[in-house]
Amino acid sequence: QVQLVESGGGLVQAGGSLRLSCAASGRTFSSGVVGSMGWFRQAPGNEREFVAAIRWRDGTTDYTESVKGRFTISRDNAKRTVYLQMNGLKPEETAVYYCASHRSLILSTTPADYDYWGQGTQVTVSS
């Protein structure tokens, strides 16, 4: 079992920045339960969409095209925490942001591939 707890959401003006954190606990990396982690977001009435992912072992990353150059995913092995630094935020990026863990080392963009999910943190970008 893996527990994921997100934090860092809030209200920010367009063009502003936020850093989201996702702390993992339980049977995580040493047991092979977690090979990679991802960030997704879901706005009201929309499907959950992929934002970024990172392979825990070597830090390899992947991003959805719309956030490349503005968002950065990173991890801290010692703290078992993954971060999402978001710069240049846009109003259309208002959503609940979720982190998720995946057993595989493959960086998947598909929500159904992920095994465990956090409760989500609200990000609101005002225009």
Assembly context of the chains: single chain
> Which structural class should the secondary elements be placed in?
mainly beta
Using only C-alpha atoms, the radius of gyration works out to: 14 Å
| Proportion of residues in β-strands | over 45%
Order of helices and strands: EEEEEEEEEEE
Q: Averaged pLDDT, please? A: 94
Helix content: under 10%
Number of helices: 0
What's the overall geometry?
globular
Q: Mind describing the biggest β-sheet?
A: 7 strands, mixed
Q: Which stretches are low in confidence, meaning pLDDT under 50 for 5 or more residues running? A: none
How many β-strands, per DSSP?
Answer: 11
**Cα separation of the termini:** 40 Å
Topology, please?
Elements: E1 2-7, E2 10-13, E3 18-26, E4 36-42, E5 49-55, E6 61-63, E7 71-76, E8 81-86, E9 95-102, E10 116-117, E11 121-126
Parallel strand pairs: 2-11
Antiparallel strand pairs: 1-3, 3-8, 4-5, 4-9, 5-6, 7-8, 9-10, 9-11
Question: What do these coordinates show?
Answer:
With 127 residues, the chain is mostly beta strands. The chain has no helices and eleven strands.
How would you summarize what this structure contains?
With 127 residues, the chain is an all-beta fold.
Key attributes of the depicted protein:
seven-stranded mixed sheet; globular; mainly beta; single chain; four-stranded antiparallel sheet; 127 residues
